[in-house]
TrEMBL record:
Residues 220-269 have a biased composition (Acidic residues). Residues 218-311 are annotated as: Disordered. Residues 18-194, 338-398 form the Phospholipase/carboxylesterase/thioesterase domain. Keywords: Hydrolase. One of its GO terms (molecular function) is palmitoyl-(protein) hydrolase activity. GO terms for cellular component: cytoplasm. It comes from the Eukaryota. Belongs to the AB hydrolase superfamily. AB hydrolase 2 family. Residues 270-282 have a biased composition (Basic and acidic residues). Gene3D superfamilies: alpha/beta hydrolase. This is Alpha/Beta hydrolase protein.
Length: 411
């Protein structure tokens, strides 16, 4: 694990950094865990998950090659930040690790998008976006100095609340060039109705009802090219590996005692991800948080002066997001280069924590702002990733980043 300068963000633990399998260092992935998890729980499990690649079904008499993210991108550094602890409204203000606070996403839209609930997201997103922008700048500088190509060799992504955080970070990124790629699994976009209405006029808010244009169903992209792969066998194998659950219960409703140990320590209880997928649940968002008693960190807020709403939908959306988060930024005359970053979004249709219509809404909204979105839905998948999703993500990155990469060399 490599050191990283995080003194300006002392409330963020040092990230877990997995150095490239092979030198030189050519790319960097910055990947965010879901609420209640940590880098040490999310990162190694993700990198160790094997999946078939390519995702297109092979002829009956051949065997599909199996790979992992780290072996597919052997020259990549993988950075897994850990969220700070703060009080969670959803869990009776118990203290857990989360990138920002938010309400229950399974409630009616008028409840979880109310002014009061939206207000709970502001402080956490303010500090997290600043932290991630700093991390992006550091990695871009490292890659640029080493001849790695800078921003276009950086990928930003996350799971669940980590997905939501990475999407906001991407929208507010004001770098001079786009990132190499971005992705989100089982996620959503905070302040989505406002971003949609900003780009389509104030009357468009009425379409945000779960059945209108914004949240309307859409077909998974690239189905014609890749075929309708079955995911049943892949999901069964997902359950074979065990991961630290930190004493979590799958339903997230019962209180239980646990030791407040450092992340990465061995825990007595483990989660079968197969069960989580089958029930549409994950320990990422359903664990028992009530044993923690430490307090969260406060951060100062910056004010953003009000100004007239820009005409371009993408510029208007960024303007609205900045004002919602009370963040300063350079005045945009045209869409930021960050919006040209190719984006992959994957979501299970049995997700019981972040309903799939929120993922569809994110894809539809971002696409309307000019983002190049590849959307994939996974039948029978709950609030987690699957081997098929990782295969599709890998295919997306290899085809859209332009990276020329070999598989990790066999010893």
């Amino acid at each position: 694990m490599s050191p990283r300068n995080t003194t300006q963000f002392t409330h963020f633990p040092d990230p877990l950094i997995i150095e490239p399998l092979q030198q030189p260092h050519k790319q960097t992935f910055i990947l965010l865990h879901g609420r209640g998890s940590s880098a040490t729980k999310f990162g190694p499990a993700l990198l160790q998950t094997s999946f078939p690649f390519p995702s297109v079904l092979p002829p009956a008499n051949t065997t599909t090659p199996v790979t992992t993210l780290i072996s597919t991108f052997p020259h990549a550094r993988f950075i897994f930040p850990t969220a700070p602890r703060s009080r969670a409204t959803l869990y009776r203000r118990s203290i857990i690790r989360q990138w920002f606070d938010n309400s229950d996403l399974t409630t009616p839209d008028d409840q979880h998008t109310s002014a009061a609930n939206e207000g709970t997201m502001v402080e956490g997103l303010q500090r997290t976006v600043g932290y991630l922008h700093d991390l992006l700048k550091q990695e871009i500088a490292v890659l640029s100095g080493g001849g790695g190509g800078g921003a276009e060799n950086v990928v930003l992504g996350g799971l669940s609340q980590g997905c939501a955080t990475s999407l906001v970070t991407l929208l507010l990124w004001d770098g001079e060039t786009r990132l190499g790629g971005a992705f989100g699994m089982c996620g959503w976009v905070p302040f989505l109705p406002h971003l949609w209405s900003g780009g389509h006029g104030s009357g468009a808010v009425g379409a945000v009802d779960g059945k209108g244009e914004l949240y309307g169903e859409r077909v998974s992209d690239d189905d014609e090219e890749e075929g309708d792969d079955e995911d049943g066998e892949d999901e069964d194998e997902d359950g074979e590996q065990e991961y630290d659950s930190d004493g979590d219960e799958s339903n997230g409703d019962e209180d239980e005692e646990e030791n407040d140990e450092e992340d990465g320590d061995d825990e007595d209880e483990r989660l079968d991800r197969k069960t989580a997928e089958g029930k549409g649940e994950s320990w990422e968002d359903t664990f028992d948080p009530f044993s923690h008693s430490d307090s969260g960190d406060d951060s100062e807020k910056e004010t953003h002066p009000a100004s007239s709403l820009p005409a371009h939908p993408a510029v208007a959306a960024v303007h609205i997001l900045r004002e919602k988060l009370e963040l300063k930024g350079k005045q945009l005359e045209s869409p930021s280069p960050s919006l040209r970053t190719p984006l992959f979004l994957g979501h299970g249709d049995k997700d019981g924590k972040v309903p799939i219509h929120l993922g569809r809404g994110a894809a539809n909204c971002l696409e309307s702002l000019g983002v190049d979105v590849s959307w994939r839905e996974y039948e029978g998948l709950g609030h987690w990733y699957s081997r098929e999703m990782l295969a599709d993500l890998t295919h997306f990155l290899k085809s859209r980043t332009g990276w020329k990469e070999d598989q990790a060399k066999k010893p």
